[in-house]
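Project outcomes to date are best conveyed with an example. Our students and postdoctoral researchers have been running inverse folding experiments weekly, and each run begins with a structure described purely in C-alpha cells. The record below, which covers 454 residues, was selected by the lab manager from last quarter's runs and is presented without edits.
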C-alpha cells in the first residue's frame, strides 16, 4: 500500500485555495458550517477499501471502487484515493488534453507503481497507423511518468468494424513486446447516430478474444442492456469496469445571486470567460435552477416517501447497486475532491439493503421516461436529420450530473449541423420509437439551451 501521509494539511491548503478563489460566498458558508472535508479532528483516520475482486483474465486484485480522472484537478486527490486502497485508475489522452495523465504521474511518485493498475485510452481514426498510435502512446507514458501502462484502451469504439482496427492491434502487439503495455481494452458509449448499440459492440468485443478489459456504462436505469455485456465479460473472462454509475437526478440547489455556491460560481466564471455579461450569466443560472426546481416539485411525493433528499444520497445508493453485482469488478468514479472520496470509499464491500433496492426499483419506474439510456440506438434511425440523440443526452449528463460543463459544451459545439436545433418544431418520430417513452424533443431542447450560450 502507499506510504500514508497526513492529509489535514493538504485539505486545509486546498480549502484555502478555494476560499481565495470564491471569495465572499465561501466566507459565509465557512462561518455557518465548516466543510466536512477539513476533518481536522480526524487527521489519521481515512476510509479504506474493503473489497477486492479479480479483474478478469488479468488476475489483478482490483478495488471495487476505482478512480476515473475526467474531473480531477489535483494530484493530491488521486494520491489520497491510492492511500485509501483504491488501486485502479482510469484516464485517457483526451482528458484535459493529457493533464489528467500528468496528475497521475505526480501521484505515482509517492507509491509503489506495481500496486496500481493504470489504464489509458486513445481515440483513433479509421485510417490511423500502428506507428502513429504508438507515438501517441509513448507521450501518454511520458505524462504518466511510467515505463508502462497496465492497459491501453481503444477509446469509444464506434462500431464492430472498428474492433478489428489493424493499426490498433498491431500497435498493441508491438507495445506488449516492448514491455510498454500488458493488456488491451475497449470502451464504448454507444453509437454516434444509427450505428450498433453499446451492447452489440461490447458483446462482440468480449467474444473477439483480443480485448482483456472493457469500460461499460452500467447503472440501475440501463440494467437490461448492460447486463448482457457483463454476462459476456463473465463468459469470456474479460475484466469489467463500470462507468456512468449514477443516472438519477433529484436535488436542486437554492439560488441566491449574492451568495453563490462554489459550483454556481464556477459556472458563472466559465460562461463569463466566453464573453457573456454577468447579468446574462446570472439569468442563465437562475433559469437552469428554476427548471430543476420544477422537476423536483414533480418528484417531491416520491422523495418524501423514501426520505432521500440529496444527489449524494442517490449517488451512494446507485454505486452500491453497481458493486452489489460480483461480476462487475469495479465501479469507476470521477472523484474530484477529498470530500467525495471520504463519502464514497466507505461504500466498498457494502450491499444495497432491501429497502434501498425497492427505492431504486421505484425510482426507475417513476423516472423511466426521463432518462435516455447511454449506449442506446433504438430511435436513431428515425431522425431525418441524423441527430445523435443518446450522444447529446450524454453531453447533458456530463453537464448536469457530472458538473463538467466545459467538456459538455465543447463536445456539443463539435456536433455542428447535427445539433438539436432540428428538434424545434419537429414532429418527433423518434419519440414513438423509444421503448421507454422519453420525450426526445423536449429533452433535446433543454439540452440545447444548456449546452449553448445563445
Ligand atoms: S425531435 Fe426530430 S429532429 Fe429531434 S431527434 Fe427527434 S426526429 Fe430528430
Ligand atoms: S430516446 Fe429512447 S430510444 Fe432514443 S436513445 Fe434515448 S433511450 Fe434510446
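After processing, the design step wrote out the following sequence:
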Amino acid at each position: 500500500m502507499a506510504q500514508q501521509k497526513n492529509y489535514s494539511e493538504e485539505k486545509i491548503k486546498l480549502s484555502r485555495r478555494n476560499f481565495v478563489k470564491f471569495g465572499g460566498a465561501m466566507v459565509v458558508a465557512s462561518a455557518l458550517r465548516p466543510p466536512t472535508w477539513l476533518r481536522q479532528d480526524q487527521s489519521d483516520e481515512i476510509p479504506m477499501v474493503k473489497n477486492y475482486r479479480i479483474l478478469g483474465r488479468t488476475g489483478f486484485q482490483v478495488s471495487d471502487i476505482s478512480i476515473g480522472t475526467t474531473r480531477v484537478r489535483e494530484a493530491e486527490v488521486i494520491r489520497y484515493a491510492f492511500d485509501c486502497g483504491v488501486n485502479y485508475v482510469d484516464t485517457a489522452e483526451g482528458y484535459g488534453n493529457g493533464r489528467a495523465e500528468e496528475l497521475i504521474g505526480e501521484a505515482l511518485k509517492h507509491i509503489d507503481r506495481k500496486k496500481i493498475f493504470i489504464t489509458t485510452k486513445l481515440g483513433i481514426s479509421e485510417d490511423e497507423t500502428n506507428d502513429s498510435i504508438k507515438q501517441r502512446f509513448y507521450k501518454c507514458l511520458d505524462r504518466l511518468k511510467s515505463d508502462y501502462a497496465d492497459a491501453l484502451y481503444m477509446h469509444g469504439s464506434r462500431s464492430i468494424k472498428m474492433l478489428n482496427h489493424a493499426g490498433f492491434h498491431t500497435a498493441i502487439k508491438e507495445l506488449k513486446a516492448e514491455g510498454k503495455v500488458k493488456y488491451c481494452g475497449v470502451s464504448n458509449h454507444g453509437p454516434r447516430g444509427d450505428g450498433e448499440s453499446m451492447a452489440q459492440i461490447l458483446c462482440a468485443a468480449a467474444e473477439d478474444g483480443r480485448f482483456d478489459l472493457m469500460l461499460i456504462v452500467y447503472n440501475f436505469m440501463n440494467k437490461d442492456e448492460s447486463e448482457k455485456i457483463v454476462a459476456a465479460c463473465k463468459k469470456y473472462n474479460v475484466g469489467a469496469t463500470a462507468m456512468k454509475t449514477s443516472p438519477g437526478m433529484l436535488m436542486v440547489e437554492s439560488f441566491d445571486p449574492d451568495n453563490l455556491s462554489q459550483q454556481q460560481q464556477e459556472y458563472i466564471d466559465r460562461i463569463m470567460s466566453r464573453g457573456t455579461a454577468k447579468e446574462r450569466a446570472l439569468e442563465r443560472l437562475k433559469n437552469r435552477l428554476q427548471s430543476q426546481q420544477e422537476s423536483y416539485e414533480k418528484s417531491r411525493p416520491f422523495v418524501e416517501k423514501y426520505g432521500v433528499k440529496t444527489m449524494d444520497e442517490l449517488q451512494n445508493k446507485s454505486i452500491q447497486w453497481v458493486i452489489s453485482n460480483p461480476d462487475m469488478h469495479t465501479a469507476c468514479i470521477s472523484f474530484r475532491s477529498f470530500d467525495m472520496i471520504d463519502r464514497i470509499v466507505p461504500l466498498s464491500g457494502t450491499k444495497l439493503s432491501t429497502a434501498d433496492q425497492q427505492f431504486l426499483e421505484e425510482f426507475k419506474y417513476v423516472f423511466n421516461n426521463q432518462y435516455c439510456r447511454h449506449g442506446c440506438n433504438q430511435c436513431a434511425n428515425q431522425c431525418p436529420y441524423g441527430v445523435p440523440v443518446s450522444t447529446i443526452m450524454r453531453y447533458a449528463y456530463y453537464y448536469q450530473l457530472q458538473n463538467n460543463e466545459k467538456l459538455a459544451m465543447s463536445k456539443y459545439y463539435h456536433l455542428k449541423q447535427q445539433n438539436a436545433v432540428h428538434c424545434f418544431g419537429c414532429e418527433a418520430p423518434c419519440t414513438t420509437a423509444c421503448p421507454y417513452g422519453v420525450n426526445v424533443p423536449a429533452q433535446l431542447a433543454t439540452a440545447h439551451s444548456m449546452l449553448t450560450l445563445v
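Residues 12-42 have pLDDT under 50 and may be disordered. The two ends are 50 Å apart (CA to CA). The training component of this project remains on track.
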